[in-house]
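Weekly sync notes, structure subgroup
Attendees: PM, AL, DS (notes)

Item 1: joint prediction request from the bench team. They want all two components modeled as one assembly rather than separately. Inputs as received:
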Amino acid sequence: MTNRERRNLRNGLLFILPWVAGFAAFIAYPLGASIYFSLCDYSVLKAPIYIGGANYQELATDPIFWESMGNTLFFAMLFLPLSTGLAISLALLLNTGVRGMAAYRTIFFLPSLTPMVASGILWMWMLNGEYGVVNHALNYLLRPFGVEAPTWLQSTTWAKPAIVLMSLWGVGYAVVIYLAALQDVPLQLYEAADLDGARWHSKVRHITLPLLSPAIFFNVVMGLITALQIFALPYVLTNGAGGPGRSTTFYAMYLYNCAFRYLRMGYACAMAWILFLIILGLTLVIHRASRRHVFYAGG
Amino acid sequence: MLPAVSRPVFAFGAGCLALLVCGCQVLVPQSQDEYVNGRIRITYWEKWTGFEGEAIKRVVDHFNQIQDRIYVDLITMSQIDQKALIAIAGGDPPDLVGLWSSGLPSFAEKQALMPLAPFMEKAGMSRDDFIKVYIDVNCYRGELYGLPTTPATTALHWNKRMFREAGLDPDRPPRTLAELDEMAAKLTKYDGQGHLVQLGFSPAEPGWWPWGWGFWFGGQLFKDDEIAFDSPENLAAFRWIASYTNRYGAEELRRFQSGFSGNFASPQNAFFSERVAMVMQGVWLANFIHQYAPKLEWAAAPFPSAAPGMENVTIADCDSISIPVGAHHPDEAFEFIRYLCSQEGLEMLCMAQQKFTPLKNVSPAFVENHPNEYIRLFIDLASSPNACHTPDLSIWFEYSDEITAAFDMVLFGLDTPEHAVAQVQQRVSAIWKRAKESIERREKAEGKVAR
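Output from the run, pasted for the record:
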């Protein structure tokens, strides 16, 4: 190693040092500690006591753990396809080249900028079973058929779909990514398809979607992670209670309650690691599936 | 000679050093902060905001004025229990913390709060100065970990105008639970399409004590060191809750209640907007009526019980003040508690918050000048032998969350009272068994260390 190389290495290490120190103190250490705590009876207020796999064993038979897991998977399974479909549809609509498109794009992106708590409170009023604007419209349409609109957040059946509906409000980020990807679709492919007499839906099906697939893959993975970690919105809407009747007790909410309400940090750490493994597993599954369905234009 | 250092590297190094110095400033407790003008600085975290926050601020300001040794620094804190937990665990807690009595056992069990008996003895204070129930709620396994600041009891509040309109005597509240149900039926109204527009009573409005209804049936939550939820009394309470669902229909009740749920401190409150004629509420309700519905014609009386001969049943709880373990100046902190919990301090605080004081001795002027004309009722309820409270149980939050979920399921007609009660009993007994094992394990581990 020459002097110059050595100096470069030293300077390089020096420059990276703050990041390494931050990473070690705020990410690596807590990660490692949480593995250890997940094997402990740990209340935060007292020193941890090692108990082996007891926390994991208890999780297997904890009915609320399974209920919260079920709620979260239900949410993710409903939210992911809906948000993907909606975002792609919006992106396609916003890519048509109509006049004033920049304004439309801004309008559709704006809700993503609203703070979650503010939009949550607003939606709470819009979905109010008695006075909500949504139910006014729905009842106008449904009452002639003798059907009543649901009470949304008051109902154990409809509370989760209501939260899906609210979450779809923030679909703007995905739309922006799809829009960017749409700009990359080579125009000559559409021209060739036009010459062959392809219709609009054939072009979408055979050109747009395949070339959009890397963006879809990215958004699905990110959406899955977000959906499985859903916390802030239901927490605000139910004041942390996850009601009615635990219908909106999602995984991350139960985890939070275990850690900070029931003072069972060890148990919460075990839950966090299980969630990590679930997210990792599902991401790997999607990654594997993507090999057949995702096309990279570069080859 | 020192090696030559290039300019960017020097700037970078200097920056790091500056950061490090700043970091140390933050991390190391500041000795100069412990004194204010030569007085010992006590930090006091309290949860109150608005006029309740103003009330405690006045008491603190007065304390800071009348003596020259201690300076109390009042800091308003949201989610105080969780922040206190982190501060205590981190070894740098405030000197005083205002918790809720219901959360006290879980802190006390983990030895996060200092027992107050030695301080009280030194200061010549006695537990007997306080109304018994407010000492009970601040005890864990017989040891006192907090003193009551602002207490509360609950009572039936009814709308006199609606009573008159329904042909009931507006000055005569129901005396038994059966009578309350009967009156509730008379006070309930439907619109032309068969939808509820006015409700006499609902066990879910405001729905803050789903775990407490058993008290009016003679039930208990915890007895002889065991979870006692599956008693016939608690089951009867859940059957009574289900009777409201059966009478009005789960969907209709839900639709009606969705119009005002979560709107306590607002004119949309079901009681203020005259959509529910009778509610069980605490002593604080009068403040909010004055603020949001000053023209409301209302009165208060003990909530009637189902058990014959059982009178003046109420739920008593309070805000408390405690000294966290690790507090820098526990003696000075207690000096402030001593002032706050004197008749002068508590009457100043509780009058401004429009509550009653937890002390047995009350000055006649306090009751006479109190803005809540029913204050005597709430004071008397606190001394009732049937004043009930949350159990002395470190797993109380798990227990109450389980009851709340069961209550929702029964109210929405999704579960039977029998199954719901049995399920709570079974689940919470398992949680209690696990918690007891954890306590034993800890005692064993600490015993080893001590040896």
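Discussion: The radius of gyration of chain B is 26 Å.
Action: AL to compare against the crosslinking data before next sync.
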